[in-house]
UniProtKB/TrEMBL annotation:
Lineage: Bacteria, Pseudomonadati, Bacteroidota, Bacteroidia, Bacteroidales
Keywords: DNA-binding
Domain Arm DNA-binding, first and last residues per copy: 31-109
Name the record gives this protein: Integrase
Tagged with keyword Cytoplasm: no
Length: 236
């Protein structure tokens, strides 16, 4: 056991020495609206890359692509740069904390920690998995196996959507917006090739999972509450 600990320690020391950790910011020109673009972040660690939204927008002409910051000394530029400095400081802290705890750290792990993905039920797929597990335990009592299988397929469609459109393995409840379910609906009808009834059913399960998490205090808001047409139901 002692030799194993020494080996792990040496391996980790070598990994840290070789580690390349970078945080940079950029704007997503493809999302430009009336000259305004969203500011994005990118974490790179030893070739692994993860991207995230900074929850900031800026006039395209104010962005310094080389400096990865807003140009000038206007109030808007100062506020955005201050927010980006704060984000970078948080990410560095998460990276250092994970490096102290884990043998190997990836960019996705750091981004997940920054976005609050480390706590049970704060992630969308994590919430779905736990709800499905509870449903499974009631099969033969007051739930049908067929309904459980439908829920599993729905969860898998959602996971595929997140991987394709967000290039991540999961997403924080805090990141969800009304547009998320609209984009998911489009994905289901195009990429997944589902018919209208199946699209509705999958969106219904998604909305139900988020509504339950909100009701149980596991997310501060329900971003889908303002949408009509996807009312959750407890199908048996």
């Amino acid at each position: 056991m002692y030799n194993s600990l020494i080996t792990n320690f040496v391996s980790k020391e070598k990994w840290i020495m070789r580690s390349t950790f970078k945080v940079l910011f950029y704007v997503n020109g493809s999302k430009e609206k009336n000259g305004i673009v969203p500011v994005m972040g990118r974490v790179t660690i030893n070739g692994s890359v993860a991207q995230f939204s900074c929850k900031q927008t800026i006039a395209k002409e104010l962005w310094d692509a080389k400096g990865n910051r807003a140009k000038g000394k206007s109030r808007e530029a100062r506020d955005i740069n201050l927010a980006l400095d704060n984000i970078k400081a948080q990410i560095i802290r998460h990276y250092q904390r994970l490096s102290d705890r884990e043998a190997f750290v990836t960019a996705e792990m750091v981004c997940n920690a920054f976005q609050g993905l480390g706590t049970e039920y704060e992630t969308l797929l994590g919430a779905f998995d736990k709800d499905n597990e509870s449903f499974k335990k009631r099969i033969g009592i007051d739930r049908a196996k067929g309904s459980y299988q439908v829920r599993v397929r729905s969860r898998n469609h959602l996971a595929a959507f997140i991987r394709k459109c967000y290039r991540r393995s999961d997403i924080s409840m805090l990141e969800l917006t009304p547009d998320f379910i609209k984009e998911y609906e489009i994905y289901l009808s195009t990429d997944a090739g589902l018919h209208n009834a199946s699209v509705w059913s999958n969106c219904m399960w998604l909305k139900t999972i988020v509504a339950k998490a909100h009701y149980n205090g596991l997310t501060p808001r329900n971003p889908f509450a303002v949408l009509r047409g996807y009312k959750g139901a407890d199908h048996r």
